[in-house]
């Protein structure tokens, strides 16, 4: 099986919608919302398995004065393609793109009962930062906050003439 991870494009919107509809609990974004993500300040990444869209991950970029922070909005792998490294590949690709866009860290929320996603995040170095009580609905559940700080480039101090 050939897996490819790449940035999503407008032609992928129907497949993205199909996958979100097949995954319980995913945000139900309209085609207009997807197109807005693709043309705006978000990073949308797709995993293809043998040419079929098998997963996606989305991060938004929050531009706070003086810094850029990335926030994971969604990550999904089709149930028939799980435990095959696609989730890991999507997140790694997203981390590289977020860092290239100037982000200093990637933040996320995850259901406290979602052990699979938490294991994926921990494996990539995400640290637990706290809980948001009763954050989710259907069913009501706490959110665990996690984040991964990107290594900062050390800027060499400029030296004047000796
Ligand atoms: C979470 C999700 C994206 C993982 O995708 P995936 O392609 O199966 O993940 P990978 O195969 O890359 O797994 C990477 C690591 O994550 C961990 N992991 C993934 N699924 C796991 C599971 N069911 N149980 C325990 N650990 C799991 C493992 O450490 C795994 O490494 P390993 O296979 O070498 O043991 C997928 O299960 C999914 O789409 N779930 C439904 C949507 C969801 O919950 N999204 C997260 C919302 S915050």
Automatic annotation (TrEMBL):
Keywords: Acyltransferase, Transferase. The keyword GTP-binding does not apply. It comes from the Bacteria. CDD domains: NAT_SF. Residues 3-151 form the N-acetyltransferase domain. SUPFAM superfamilies: Acyl-CoA N-acyltransferases (Nat). InterPro entries: AcTrfase_RimI/Ard1, Acyl_CoA_acyltransferase, Bact_Acetyltransf, GNAT_dom. GO terms for molecular function: N-acetyltransferase activity. PANTHER family: AMINOALKYLPHOSPHONATE N-ACETYLTRANSFERASE-RELATED, AMINOALKYLPHOSPHONATE N-ACETYLTRANSFERASE-RELATED-RELATED. This is Ribosomal-protein-alanine N-acetyltransferase. The lineage of its organism: Bacteria, Pseudomonadati, Acidobacteriota, Terriglobia, Terriglobales.
């Amino acid at each position: 099986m050939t897996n490819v991870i790449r940035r999503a494009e407008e032609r992928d919107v129907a497949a993205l919608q199909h996958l979100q509809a097949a995954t319980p609990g995913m945000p139900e974004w309209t085609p207009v919302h997807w197109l807005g993500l693709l043309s705006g300040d978000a990073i949308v990444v797709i995993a293809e398995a043998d040419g079929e869209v098998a997963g996606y991950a989305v991060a938004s970029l929050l531009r706070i004065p003086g810094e850029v922070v990335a926030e994971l909005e969604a990550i999904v792998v089709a149930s028939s393609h799980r435990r095959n490294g696609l989730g890991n590949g999507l997140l790694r690709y997203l981390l590289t793109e977020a860092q290239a866009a100037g982000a200093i860290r990637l933040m996320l929320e995850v259901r406290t009962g979602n052990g699979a996603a938490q294991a994926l995040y921990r494996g990539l170095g995400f640290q637990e930062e706290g809980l948001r009580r009763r954050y989710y609905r259907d069913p009501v559940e706490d959110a665990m906050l996690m984040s991964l700080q990107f290594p900062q480039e050390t800027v060499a101090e400029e030296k004047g003439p000796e």
